[in-house]
């Protein structure tokens, strides 16, 4: 079967178990993989992309390098892994200017440094176009899988929901974001949140949202539960950009590239989670709950499964 017919999710389902060790800290196909080293889990994540696919209008190589490390770090942090180091694999056309390559790496180093981690070199290759692979490793004392039980509460961490979607739409419409500085900041410098680590041991499950919130929630539903959204964050700048509430909600559900975390909270631990988050300065938004059944719903209406896919 050709990959375009199989689809990315089905392909990953076939690839992820190949060679994956039994008894690993996280199941195959989760946001990151890992092994136990004594009592601590060492987690690893690799992400790759072509420059032209992620460089929004106004972005330069510095921002794209920053975004590369951010994407990888987000997968580690939502698993409760503290990032320690990153490496880059660069594919560069031979006629590319030296400064372009340097700015890519400087952006990656900036993101790593702001996460308390190091950039540890990598590899360079000739390519027909600029492309990057980013690998990151982290330590996790209590690794957090994709998991939910009926009765659990659903929280969205961070404040980029809808903002990155707005920036992506602005890119394709060749629209300047000068009037929306927080939207531009969210898309250009989407730093994942170390504050998530303050919730260690309190959560049932966690997922990175990069393919879009709707797709992320559908992945959670695949754990054998129904996801009921009761509210979604709707920021004034996102609403102003969209010009319509329905379109703004579309940006929240399907925008993608947030590099924020979807958190599953046991109801008996909600108060402690909120207290810890407030102390750490982590924005949390209660979006809904998990129940028996299947599928994803917003105010009782089915949410279409739609998100970014490579095939």
For the largest beta-sheet, the strand count, sense and barrel status come to: 7 strands, mixed
Extract low-pLDDT stretches: none
Query: Could you tell me the mean pLDDT?
Result: 96
Record the strand order, biggest sheet: 7-9-6-10-8-11-12
SSE order, one letter for each helix or strand = HHEEHHEHEEEHHEHEHHEHEEE
Strand content: 25-35%
Based on CA inertia axes, which overall geometry fits? globular
Instruction: Return the structural class.
Output: alpha+beta
Number of alpha- plus pi-helical segments: 11
Helical proportion?
25-40%
Indicate the radius of gyration in whole angstroms.
Answer: 19 Å
Could you give the count of β-strands?
12
Could you tell me how far the N terminus lies from the C terminus, measured between alpha carbons in angstroms?
Answer: 12 Å
Describe this entry's structure for a reader.
This protein is of the alpha+beta class and 311 residues long. Helix content is 34%, strand content 26%. The chain has 11 helices and 12 strands. Strands 7-9-6-10-8-11-12 form a 7-stranded mixed beta sheet, with helices on both faces. Strands 1-2-5-3-4 form a 5-stranded mixed beta sheet. Strand 3 (82-92), helix 5 and strand 4 form a beta-alpha-beta unit. Helix 6 packs across helix 7, helix 6 (163-172) packs across helix 10 and helix 9 (236-242) crosses helix 10 (245-254). The protein is globular. The two termini are 12 Å apart. The relative contact order is 0.16. The model has no long low-confidence stretch (mean pLDDT 96).
Tell me the layout of helices and strands:
Layout lengths: L2 H4 L1 H8 L17 E5 L2 E11 H4 L6 H17 L4 E11 L5 H17 L3 E9 L4 E10 L12 E5 L5 H10 L8 H8 L16 E5 L3 H9 L4 E4 L6 H7 L2 H10 L5 E6 L4 H11 L3 E8 L3 E4 L2 E2 L9
Parallel strand pairs: 3-4, 8-11
Antiparallel strand pairs: 1-2, 2-5, 3-5, 6-9, 6-10, 7-9, 8-10, 11-12
Helix pairs in contact: 4-5, 6-7, 6-10, 9-10
